[in-house]
TrEMBL record:
GO BP, sorted A to Z: defense response to virus
GO molecular function per UniProt: ATP binding; endonuclease activity; helicase activity; hydrolase activity; metal ion binding
Domain HD Cas3-type: from-to ranges: 20-233
Stated name of the protein: CRISPR-associated endonuclease Cas3
Stored NCBIfam families: cas3_HD (TIGR01596)
Keywords, in A-Z order: Antiviral defense, ATP-binding, Endonuclease, Helicase, Hydrolase, Metal-binding, Nuclease, Nucleotide-binding
PROSITE patterns xrefs: HD_CAS3 (PS51643)
Entry-linked SUPFAM superfamilies: P-loop containing nucleoside triphosphate hydrolases
Family, similarity comment: In the N-terminal section; belongs to the CRISPR-associated nuclease Cas3-HD family. In the central section; belongs to the CRISPR-associated helicase Cas3 family.
Pfam families documented for this protein: Cas3-like_C_2, Cas3_HD
């Protein structure tokens, strides 16, 4: 059977030929392009462990596996040989707007039945349905009763998932005659061409071996990522245009052999453009010893390398109060694990975007010591997903503008036109600093979740404050750790104190590594650490536990008066002395702004800084950078200074204060804020009369309030685990009587109901663990009945909306919009016929909780709404009223000023 080179695989972005017809790239060429890239990805990008997972699962040699993955990658788009795809009304056209493939309709061999063009099956699903039978005919292991357990179905399902979602199992009766269920596949020449294309790919690539193994979860993740990455690279429009064939190109065997050499020559260049190659881990020198001390850093440096050398990489759990020392210990452990695993990068995950922003400089300082070869870094959280590279560049610019330059020339930051500058690709970057939800989405049924697992499977993952995500996040983290262990991903977890949630995380990795379901316990003394190897799930403890580097006493005072008066009174000694640093935590941005204005009026000449989450990205980054210098232990500040902020700052490291003031909050949050105190006797004032954040659990706030009473002192870190256990104790209310007991029991019941509901939702939403798949990759993409679009984002934490405020400029009727008030150079193209530039927005985005803008439609025009990167950004055209820039909707009033955005609900 001759191969029909008219069947096209790519057309978008390829331009027109001299006659005015759309240029197309023959499908067979795209298949060979992808196969050629797959060879290079296998050779140059995959780690030795990733390749080993594939070869062991398939029971073939490494050379045979290389040929097989190239062959399979070359079949990924075989479903494009179908009626709905080739004859789609939006397909490539001639100069007179007829489909280029219209002539197929008149050829008897390409005849098709009624309903074929209306068949809604995607080309990815079509590949899955057709390839099951094709692989069975080739002799791949198969099963009529349970097809998902055999290789023939597993490879077909894997290739059908290259669009980001796997499709349900195809059973025997459908795989034997798929066209009966999906007429769009077509019979006659449609079937013959699928076979001709598949056979030629196999012949040219050399994938003739017939594997007899089974598809393990680890092999499936690696192969899925390899196929998707190869397809993405082979689809680079500029490279395709350089390899377009002449219209007379026939696709004969000699033509295909010649083209295969062209594709192979281009493949290394395609992979090099990703900035993914060449990164590794160096062996770090041991830290300088402190005579007579065995602190956390010394204990881990003395034991972790030996444990990893003996048992291989795995999970390190560090429990200690938040500090830069704990962060350094976690990063050094990551370097040991990364070197042993021959990992190609690191992802550092934190609870919030602000925490990620503040850690990025320390992560870069670590990377310059620990990473070898070239590496690119990206900032990854909700404010950076629009354009990760632009966000990273703006972060660097914000720091450099204050005299901080992370690295000469900032070579670590990808450019705006970088291949990595995409939401789905960004996690592949050698170094990522972001939020933990980037990990949790790998175990949720979202698009490209398997690609996320693939991106992480070649790295080391560090999770800071791993317990700080509530019941939903905790359940999803357990599922992620099961997958991490199954994929042998080295992980470092850092938590404030050892408790049952930390025990559960240890047990999850232990279970995923094949260690059974028995409980595992983290040592309770603080600081402490433990190690679980990924080979068998063995738990290992240090021979010489860590000792506290320094014991401190935290003094907690509970103030009963009005918050404003108590804040003034607490600051008077600092102002009078003309020296000292204080942090004031307010529950919302609006209250933080009010406190800032009040303090500047009450204490003229006092240095008062404001920072909160509803500022422009660039302003928040600049202020965080400035705070990192001003409030460092040896910060350059003279006189008294006060930082007014919100809970966004509690996970930020490297800031030190003599006094911390905060409204009521759960004990863990208060201790995190107090941990920023300086010296051996930091001081925390709790403003009992202040309002409580809507995000805080009322029962835990009430328990904390009762536990603190009128105030107390806490010896750190020794008393920290006991104090946290006490505030969570089930019998806490037993010693209470009367209304107080009834109130607390009611709040506790509400908390238990919320947590159980959240835990149940997360169990229902999370993908199965690696041991529960039973070969069916479709379970990773299953749709739940009743799953609303917003559920996924709500599980990841409070749903945020990115807002951009636009200022008018010019005369009425001829108005353009500016991103900054009066700055003509910051014009933003948003007229109806102008295409917006999403990257330009990144510095000016403002993250706002969705609950505060519910029902607000904004002023987006059709061009804005039609741009994928902008459709989830709320655009507000501002007007000047009473000297203030405002936007008023039927339900809300937005005010934008130099101190950020405030939102007032009107109805």
């Amino acid at each position: 059977m001759f191969l029909d080179s008219r069947l096209w695989g790519k057309s978008t972005g390829l331009g027109e030929d001299p006659s005015g017809s759309n240029r197309t790239h023959p499908l067979i060429c795209h298949l060979l392009d992808t196969a050629a890239v797959a060879e290079v990805v296998w050779d140059e990008l995959l780690t030795a462990h990733q390749r080993s997972m594939v070869t062991k699962a398939l029971r073939v040699s490494e050379d045979q596996a290389r040929a097989l993955v190239a062959f399979w990658a070359g079949l990924h788009d075989i479903g494009k040989i179908s009626v709905p795809f080739q004859l789609h009304r939006n397909g490539p056209k001639t100069a007179d707007k007829r489909l280029l493939t219209e002539e197929l309709r008149s050829e008897p061999g390409y005849a098709f039945g009624a309903g074929a063009e209306q068949d809604q099956q995607s080309h990815e699903a079509a590949a899955h349905w057709w390839l099951v039978g094709y692989f069975e005919e080739m002799g791949y292991p198969s099963s009529k009763r349970r097809p998902q357990t055999r290789l023939s179905h597993a490879v077909a399902q894997l290739l059908g998932g290259h669009g980001g979602r796997f499709h349900p199992v195809v059973h025997g009766k459908d795989s034997r005659c798929p066209v009966a269920r999906h007429p769009g596949l077509g019979a006659g020449d449609w079937e013959r061409q699928r076979r001709a294309h598949a056979d030629e790919v196999r012949r040219v690539v050399g994938g003739t071996v017939v594997p007899q193994g089974r598809m393990t979860p680890g092999a499936a993740v690696v192969l899925t990522g390899l196929v998707i990455l190869s397809d993405w690279l082979a689809s680079t429009e500029g490279e395709i245009r350089a390899r377009l064939r002449e219209a007379t190109w026939a696709g004969a065997p000699d033509d295909l052999d010649a083209y295969w050499q062209v594709a192979r020559a281009a493949a290394p260049r395609l992979l090099r453009q990703t900035d993914l190659l060449g990164t590794g881990f160096a062996r770090l020198p041991e830290p300088a010893p402190h005579p007579g001390q065995t602190g956390l850093l010394e204990s881990m440096a003395g034991h972790v390398p030996d444990m990893v050398a003996e048992h291989g990489p795995g999970l390190v759990v560090v429990t200690a109060p938040p500090s830069e020392d704990r962060t350094e210990a976690a990063l050094r452990a990551a370097a040991v694990l990364g070197h042993a695993a021959e990992a190609r990068g690191l992802f550092y995950a934190l609870p919030t975007g602000s925490a990620a922003d503040s850690h990025m400089a320390q992560v870069h300082a670590f990377a310059r010591q620990a990473l070898t070869g070239p590496w690119k870094s990206l900032l990854l959280h909700s404010s950076s997903r629009l354009k990760p590279a632009e966000s990273t560049e703006e972060w660097a610019r914000a720091h450099a503008s204050d005299g901080i330059s992370p690295e000469p020339g900032e070579e670590w930051a990808p450019t705006a036109n970088s291949w990595l500058n995409s939401h789905y690709r960004a996690l592949l970057a050698a170094l990522g600093t972001g939020t933990v939800d980037e990990l949790l989405q790998a175990v949720m049924p979202v698009k490209h979740n398997a690609m996320r697992l693939f991106a992480l499977s070649g790295k080391v993952v560090v999770v800071d404050e791993a317990h700080a995500r509530g019941a939903w996040g905790q359940r999803l983290m357990l599922r992620f750790l099961e997958w991490a262990a199954a994929l042998r991903i080295p992980v470092v977890l850092a938590a404030t104190a050892a408790d049952t949630s930390v025990d559960a995380m240890l047990a999850a990795y232990h279970r995923g590594a094949g260690g059974g379901r028995e409980p595992v316990m983290q040592p309770r003394p603080s600081p402490g650490w433990s190690f679980v190897d990924a080979r068998a799930g063995g738990v290992h403890l240090p021979r010489k536990p860590a000792e506290p580097a320094r014991t401190g006493v935290l003094g907690i005072t509970v103030a009963e008066g009005a918050p404003e008066a108590e804040i003034r009174a607490a600051l008077v000694p600092i102002v009078a002395a003309g020296n000292g640093r204080a942090a004031v935590y307010r529950p919302t941005p609006a209250e933080a702004v009010r406190t800032f204005h009040q303090l500047t009026q009450d204490f003229p000449g006092l240095s008062v800084t404001l920072i909160h989450e509803q500022m422009h990205n660039k302003d928040r980054w600049q202020r965080l950078a400035a705070c990192g210098k001003t409030y460092a232990p040896a910060g350059r500040v003279s006189g008294a200074s006060v930082l007014v902020t919100t809970p966004m700052l509690e996970h930020v490291r490297g800031l030190h204060f003599d006094l911390v003031l905060s409204g009521p909050a759960p004990l863990a949050a208060l201790l995190a804020r107090a941990g920023q105190g300086e010296g051996d006797r930091p001081s925390l004032v709790v403003l009992r009369g202040d309002s409580v954040s809507e995000l805080d659990d009322a029962a835990l706030v009430r328990r904390t309030d009762m536990l603190l009473g009128t105030g107390r002192t806490v010896t750190l870190p020794e008393e920290l685990p006991r104090l946290l256990d006490e505030v969570y104790a089930a019998e806490f209310a037993d010693g209470l009587e009367g209304p107080a007991a009834r109130e607390l029991r009611q709040l506790d019941n509400q908390r238990v109901v919320r947590e159980r509901r959240a835990d149940g939702t997360a169990r229902w939403l999370a993908v199965p663990g690696p041991c529960e798949l039973d070969g069916d990759l479709g379970l990773l993409s299953r749709d739940h009945t009743g799953m609303e679009p917003g559920l996924v984002t709500s599980v990841l934490g409070e749903d945020m909306v990115q807002v951009v405020c636009l200022y008018p400029y010019g005369k009425p009727g001829n108005t353009v919009h500016l991103l900054e008030d009066g700055v003509r150079e910051r014009r933003f193209a948003c007229a109806p016929k102008e295409k917006p530039k999403p990257g330009l927005l990144v510095p000016y985005l403002i993250p706002v909780p969705k609950r505060l803008v519910e029902g607000v439609e904004g002023d987006a025009n059709s061009t804005w709404r039609g741009t994928a990167a902008l459709k989830n950004i709320l655009r507000l055209n501002l007007k000047q009223e009473g000297g203030r820039w405002v936007h008023t909707s039927p339900t809300h009033r937005f005010c934008m000023g130099e101190h950020g955005l405030t939102v007032q609900q009107l109805t």
